[in-house]
Amino acid sequence: MDYINAFWVGGLICALTQILMEKTKLMPGRIMVLLVCSGAVLGATGLYEPLLDYAKAGASVPLLGFGNVLWEGVHDAVQEEGLLGIFKGGLTAGSAGTCAALVFGYLASLVFDSKMKK
């Protein structure tokens, strides 16, 4: 049942994002920022944790999950280090995922022959 819940919640997030892209004039970059900020706000209000418990990877993999990771990092760092944690926490919490994305993206560019669109 975990796989089904992850599939439909992740699919719903992606479908709502696609509708937002097609029905508004928002640029994709702004929609991405909206998703990350929404994940942080849901994490700050305590609404993201029950969703994460229910949908697991269906909620943590989309950009909402990245926003929640940033929020958790900032929250924990502020608890431990005070005001400096506002600047340090998000970078520390999101660094592993960001580094992995860069490394695997680079490795993929070495394996595949990418070409510019015409």
UniProtKB/TrEMBL annotation:
Q: Does the keyword Secreted apply?
A: no
The record's keywords, sorted A to Z, are: Membrane, Transmembrane, Transmembrane helix
Transmembrane feature ranges: 6-24, 31-48, 91-112
Does the record bear Membrane in its keywords? yes
* Pfam families recorded: SpoVAC_SpoVAEB
Under the heading PANTHER family, the entry gives: STAGE V SPORULATION PROTEIN AC-RELATED (PTHR38450), STAGE V SPORULATION PROTEIN AEB (PTHR38450:SF2)
**Protein name as it appears in the record:** SpoVA/SpoVAEb family sporulation membrane protein
